[in-house]
């Protein structure tokens, strides 16, 4: 596609203050209206879904309303901190701020207590149920460079639901070293009532290179220890990962091209080869006779994934580059469409709801993404210090 043809696919109009008021692409048109302070007042996506925004006198978002649905209402204290979020059928998430501690009161009397050090780093985050029993707890220690040096995790087995609801199909980069679930350790501790409850307890220790890259991590529980170490090249690319568990050792190596793109990952179990287009987008990943192919639009947004010759994922974006529709392969061999309504009031756009003809999931945000309202159910997100979702309760 030539540059001239590419430019024809995107068209933007602006209001008198220089804000984008209309964005048109080959998938449709989205519209935007702002107040004189630049706050978004109205957003209509390419499918005709509309969100209206209202602000208080200090410029804080006070109400978010999707046409035809109950509004979400926000209140703030004198320091512009959120103190309540009212959503759905008059349910409330409320916040207390006591020194370096933030207390979140959830529906059904669950609680999150977050403690921070004087540098603003999270040092403790505890989820408790309606009678004060621990559901999940994470404690963090930092080194002199403000890097996490230790992490302690306690998770109630009775309340554990891993984060499996969101698709991983768009995560092409298999060069990830997630250690959150590499070791499952059971222990028995006492809850506030003196009763014995089964918990998973883990301790993580981290060390870093002089360039602050992760050098090693050690994950320990009552049934053993797993040690992971990493090496890097002069460009900062990770070149190896060594995992030791007892007497067992597994080494995975990573090879890059002259543009520092991963082209080969070799583990004891398999070898994966990667290729890229001229823009640096990964277009294939091949291992053991299985090939994943990736396609992109003119803005380098991922639009499709094929496993061998079968399409397993498709995505559509608006003219602002926001994903608004996905299609994922179901167990029955058909592609299921899911529309996304995005909340554009955030600095970084957040997904407000995912829906189709048979289901709908709404996401409620306060200080972070907190509540998931799915057809017939309501869940609370368990998150870590980076607000990454670890599970739901």
TrEMBL record:
Keyword Glycoprotein listed: no
PANTHER family: PROTEIN RHSA-RELATED, PTHR32305
Keyword Repeat: yes
Protein name: Wall-associated domain protein
NCBIfam families in the cross-refs: YD_repeat_2x
Pfam families: TEN_YD-shell
Domain Teneurin-like YD-shell: 9-231
Keywords noted in UniProt: Repeat
């Amino acid at each position: 596609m030539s540059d001239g043809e590419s430019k024809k696919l995107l068209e933007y109009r602006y209001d008198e203050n220089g804000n984008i008021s209309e964005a048109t692409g080959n998938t449709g048109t989205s519209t935007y209206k702002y107040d004189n302070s630049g706050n978004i007042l109205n957003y209509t996506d390419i499918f005709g879904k509309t969100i209206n925004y209202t602000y208080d006198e200090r410029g804080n978002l006070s109400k978010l309303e999707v046409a035809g649905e109950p509004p979400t209402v926000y209140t703030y204290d004198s320091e512009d901190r959120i103190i309540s979020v009212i959503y759905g059928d008059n349910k409330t998430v409320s916040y207390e701020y006591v020194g370096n501690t933030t207390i979140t009161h959830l529906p059904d009397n669950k609680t999150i207590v977050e403690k921070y050090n004087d540098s603003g780093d999270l040092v403790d985050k505890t989820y408790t149920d309606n009678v004060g029993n621990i559901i999940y707890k994470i404690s963090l220690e930092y080194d002199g460079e403000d890097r996490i040096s230790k992490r302690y995790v306690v998770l109630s087995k009775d309340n554990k639901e891993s984060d499996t609801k969101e698709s991983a199909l768009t995560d092409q980069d298999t060069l990830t070293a997630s250690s959150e679930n590499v070791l499952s350790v059971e222990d028995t501790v006492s809850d506030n009532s003196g009763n014995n409850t089964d918990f998973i307890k883990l301790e993580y220790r981290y060390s870093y290179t002089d360039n602050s890259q992760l050098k090693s991590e050690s994950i320990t529980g009552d049934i053993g220890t797993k040690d992971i170490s990493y090496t890097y090249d002069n460009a900062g690319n990770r070149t190896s990962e060594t995992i030791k568990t007892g007497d067992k050792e597994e080494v995975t190596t990573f090879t890059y091209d002259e543009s520092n793109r991963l082209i080969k990952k070799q583990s004891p179990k398999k070898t994966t080869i990667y290729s890229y287009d001229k823009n640096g987008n990964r277009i294939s990943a091949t291992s053991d006779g299985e090939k994943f192919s990736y396609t992109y639009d003119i803005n380098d947004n991922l639009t499709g994934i094929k496993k061998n010759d079968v399409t397993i994922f498709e995505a559509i974006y608006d003219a602002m580059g926001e994903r608004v529709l996905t299609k994922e392969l179901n167990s029955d061999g058909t592609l299921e469409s899911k529309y996304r309504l995005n909340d554009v009031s955030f600095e970084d756009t957040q997904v407000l709801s995912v829906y189709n003809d048979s289901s709908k999931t709404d996401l409620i945000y306060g200080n972070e993404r907190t509540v998931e309202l799915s057809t017939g159910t309501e869940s609370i997100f368990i998150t870590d210090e980076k607000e990454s979702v670890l599970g739901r309760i």
